[in-house]
Amino acid sequence: MKVIVMVKATKDSEAAVMPDEKLLADMGRYNEELVKAGIMLSGEGLHPSSKGVRVRFSGTKRSVIDGPFAETNELVAGFWMWRVKSMEEAIEWVKRCPNPMLTDSEIEIRPVFEAEDFGESFTPELREQEATLRAKVLDLNLDRFEEGREIHVAGLKQVHNLQSKHQIPDQWHKFVPDIGKVPGAIDGCTYGVTWNCKENGDFDYLCGVEVNPETQDTGDFSQVTLPAGRYAVFTHRDHVSRLEETYDRIWCKWAPDSGLKIRKAPCVECYSQDFNAETGFGGTDIWIPIEA
Prior knowledge:
The structure is a single chain. The chain has helices at residues 11-14, 21-36, 87-95, 124-137, 168-175, 243-257, and strands spanning 2-8, 40-45, 53-58, 61-66, 76-83, 107-111, 142-148, 151-160, 185-195, 203-211, 222-226, 229-235, 267-271, 284-290. It has 292 residues and is α+β, with helices and mostly antiparallel strands.
């Protein structure tokens, strides 16, 4: 679950009394612990309400109210966004926080709405629309959602992990000269397929081409079947060497908040005939499998 953790304002924070060196150091160490634990998504301190404004809505009228605002104990002086397993875990982390103020203070924890909270009203179409908007915020090119057909791919397979994944380009260099030697190959796209992902970080990666489904024997080449199903299709417009950065944004930032149920594998890179192997640009899509 995702929560917003709000540091309530005090008279000192509203008077712009700045924290001392010790408090800044203590909060810095605490934030480091949050980051190492994989909990912290973001966090910021806020200026006093004297530098803020409010916009009041009344029918079609809008009026602007300048700060400061009187109800100090209801104001927020700073916040974190955390992803935690439960409210209990969030509470335990807040208890470990140094007092964020130089006087007595309070921190409030509020759950953030998730897609499941809206029930059937949040239809698959609305979920995909929301997922597309989140991708744009992250500068990801979520081009479309598509019903993918079953595809049989054969090629060179290797086992990688988080430490060795930088060797995938070398795997491609080994496979490219053999593209025309794969039995039953069908002209068209080439594929990079990631599947069989394990908790220890190991995964299978195959550089391959589509083959006729009736092909029984592909010789020394390994095979994998891409199941029919719905996919979110991202267009990668940067150099192919930056694919890993795009993957990181998809899996670490987009997928957890997309509102979609993501199937971990197979994840597919599709290189169309527009891909230029010499320049490393063009014709590269990333297919992320989702549950319809």
